[in-house]
Amino acid sequence: MMLKRFINFAIKIFTSLFPSEKPLLLTGKDSALKLASLLRLSGYRRPLLVTEKSLLELGLLDGVLGQLKNEGCDVSLFDGVVPNPTCDVVEAGISACKANDSDSVFVVGGGSAIDVAKVIAACRAMNVGVHAVVGLLKVKQPTLPLYVVPTTSGTGSEVTSTAVISDTKTHEKNFVVDPKLIPSVAALDPELIKSLPSHITAATGMDALTHAIEAYTSLNRFSDAERDAELAIQLLIKYLPVVCEDGNNIKAREWVAIASFLAGYAFNKSGLGYVHAISHQISALYNTPHGIANAVILTRVLRFNQGVCAHRLAKLETMLRVQKIAWLTASSSGWNYLPND
Ligand SMILES: [Fe+2]
């Protein structure tokens, strides 16, 4: 018990000494284009555009690429991001950044792409390779300015100080953790998220909900993180089922993206818990998608934790009950969705 209290105290001190900051946030239709204009207005001209080849082929980057070029930017492209990116992928991105003398990094993609962009921006600023920044607080100077457009709503990577890179030699996940990795600006553009298939929307959304609930029930309390976690839970309970039913519902897409951002901020500050600790092991063994592993484990861990956070769980239940009344009301007025008990 004493050790636990000491660890919680140490985390509080660490978080107070190295406070998390939120990126400037743009939301809504065409916010990705505004982000491109903002990069140029901020005085940068040679961004490295980091993305996944599949997004490029789908034409998802046409608008952003066109806008950057219209603004007079000399854009270089790095489309080598893959799921569970390796050190080799990041090194290739660093080489592209160096070869083009890029002055900023603009990323469009999911959590993997954002993680790769964070490490490229850090390594290029320090002129070092990936291994020099692996670990805690290894980023010794400000990164290249980082502009982020997430195309999924779940990881919260657009607001966190962490990047995960796989090492093919040791078969381990390398964590880069430093507040300097937090992006400068993020744009939550629902038009770039609406094509996400329903099953991925559900899995990533459950990841966001787990972030929010684990932060909300954490013993490391910070008032702003608590407020954001609470709001994220309410938004996800209300809008996640809607976007799973209808991916083209732009308003609901936007709220889910905002909820994911808020949940990301909350867990970046208050930390995660046993759900993530267990689900990472399951995913490593069976390749289970992260959000699905979280969803399966969540209720079991909440039951296990009730002895230490009963008050929090009671508040959570009240929130869900109020939401259920809203669901019933919406259903009677034609909203065709009702959760199971
Ligand atoms: Fe997660």
Helix and strand arrangement:
Layout: H1 2-17, E1 24-27, H2 31-41, E2 47-50, H3 53-57, H4 62-70, E3 76-78, H5 87-99, E4 104-109, H6 111-126, E5 135-136, E6 146-150, E7 162-167, E8 172-177, E9 185-188, H7 198-216, H8 223-245, H9 250-270, H10 274-286, H11 290-305, H12 310-332
Parallel strand pairs: 1-9, 2-3, 2-4, 4-6, 5-8, 6-9
Antiparallel strand pairs: 7-8
Helix pairs in contact: 2-4, 5-6, 7-8, 7-9, 7-11, 8-9, 8-12, 10-11
The structure holds fe (ii) ion.
The name CATH uses for the topology of the largest domain is Rossmann fold
What spatial order of strands do you see in the largest sheet?
1-9-6-4-2-3
Shape: globular
The string of secondary-structure elements, in order, is: HEHEHHEHEHEEEEEHHHHHH
CATH class category name of the largest domain: Alpha Beta
Total discrete domains: 2
Q: Number of DSSP helices?
A: 12
Largest sheet: 6 strands, parallel
Helical fraction equals 40-55%
Q: What's the pLDDT, averaged over the residues?
A: 89
The total count of strands amounts to 9
Q: What ligands can be seen in this structure?
A: fe (ii) ion
* Main structural class: alpha/beta
Beta content: 5-15%
The radius of gyration over CA amounts to 20 Å
| Unreliable residue runs | 330-341
CATH architecture of the largest domain: 3-Layer(aba) Sandwich
